[in-house]
Request: fold
Amino acid sequence: MQVMKLVVTVIDFDGLGADGVKDAIENARYPNRCISPTVRNIDVRDIGPWSDDHPLNHRDKAEAEYTRLFETPNAALRGDSGLIAGVPLESTVMQQEAK
Reply:
């Protein structure tokens, strides 16, 4: 048996929010319970309005946009205020303690 750590990008078209996306992933009915995912943390960034031209909608631009959003240490370079609902981004990462 193996355990895997995945890094997955989710675009929340329906506005489920972090908790809703977490619940959707963890509570999906996988055939024969072949996988049992647990979301350990969520890091959220605002990507502005969605359009066909959005960089995350293009394979040749998505990686650079992902890097800009999640791996650029300077909030101004990411294009965000460093806050979500007035809370520092670092505080918005959901972490679930190992049981």
User: Anything to note?
Assistant: The mean pLDDT is 81.
